[in-house]
Amino acid sequence: MKKAVFTLASLAILMVAGCKEDKTKTEKVIIEKQVETQVETPAEAPTKESDGTSLSIDNKGVEFSTKDGENKTEVNINK
Q1: Most CB atoms within 10 A, among 8, 23, 42, 63?
Q2: Residue 51 burial (CB < 10 Å; 0-12/13-18/19+)?
Q3: Statement: the pTM of the whole predicted model exceeds 0.70
């Protein structure tokens, strides 16, 4: 019985000593750079509708439109 207690106590001491973490001091270095922002104003270009499909849903209703080349379809569903 004494050997079992001695063995378990030895294992417990080894586990505590083995699991102990060494915390090293780390330093954080923050480098700040100034970023130049350039705002371009869009030129007044005529709006050209591209081919595709759009779906718009709001509290007034649903609007669905599709365009393929010169064929254009619009569907409006209002409350």
Answers
A1: 63
A2: exposed
A3: no
